[in-house]
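A quick aside before the break. I want you to see a complete sequence-to-structure record at least once, exactly as it would be stored in a machine-readable document. Don't worry about memorizing anything.
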Amino acid sequence: MARIQIPLDALTSRLNLSGRFEGIRTQSLTARFANLRPISEFLDLKRLSKPANFSEVQTRVNYNLGYFSSNYAVVFIMLSIYSLLTNRTLLFVLLLVIGGMYGIGRLQGQDLDIGIIRATSSQLYTGLLIIAVPLGFFASPFATALWLIGASGVSILGHASLMDRPIENAFSEEAV
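That is the input. The structure line, written in tokens, reads:
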């Protein structure tokens, strides 16, 4: 039976995703959010319209992903915080692991002495692992991650495809 091969280059080249994420690692946090657009421009209801065809959707998405990229990052961060606040077990597991790693790191390789109990750093890491892994599976991080991908994809791509470009920008590209 022959395998079905999906030409990913053909799918991603139409949306121009190849160079979209190259500058994320090289930018500082302040430079990343320096072009944060005002909320009145981001939620301008006068510019919302239904695209006429798929070509217009592609044009809008390409333009809006670059223009509102910092706003979309803030939307993703807000949805991430919301997902952690609604999944308190996952929040507890994350805080437990971060706090445990911080506490074990504060020992600086020395043993932990509590009364008659003495534990090495490797025993503490093993204990943290034994507690955190089952709790982590119980907290359903995969369902939360999939919800986050779906919710951010629908909200970001929905906004990018429905938000029309500014009039002055639309005319300047047509004249070229």
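Two observations worth writing down. The chain has nine helices and two strands. The beta strands are 112-114, 117-119. We'll return to this after the break.
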